[in-house]
Amino acid sequence: MPTIAVDKAGLFKALGRDFTYEEFDELCFDFGIELDEDTSQNERPIVNGKQEPAQLKIEIPANRYDMLCFEGISLMLNIFLGRRTSPDYRLVAPPRGNLQVINVDKEVRFES
Q: Parallel, antiparallel, or unpaired for β 3-7 and 55-59?
């Protein structure tokens, strides 16, 4: 499973509240992801005179490509918490109805 590091303060702000370690760990478990690490309790490096902000390292299941970034994690957790509704994705025709066509020459091939 990929592990994604996100800014702790930014994620809690996006979720509308602060969580204790235990509360956020339980939220992750209930949702089906795993909190791997909270760096706020660790010694964090100083970069350009500022201490690096605390991060949450979250393990994301391999089939959840929608959660491989900060925005995806915050959106899905907000939906799970009932703070947002699910997005209404729609298939729409492109402007002026022009579809793009990709032509691949026969000489281009994949070798493994």
A: antiparallel
DSSP 58: E
Terminal Cα-to-Cα distance of the chain (whole angstroms): 24
Conformation bin of residue 81: beta by default, left when phi > 0, alpha when psi is -120 to 50: alpha
Q: Give me the phi and psi of 18, to 5 degrees please.
A: -90, 150
53-74 residue pLDDT tens: 889 999 999 999 999 999 999 9
Question: What is the DSSP pairing of strand 55-59 with strand 50-51?
Answer: unpaired
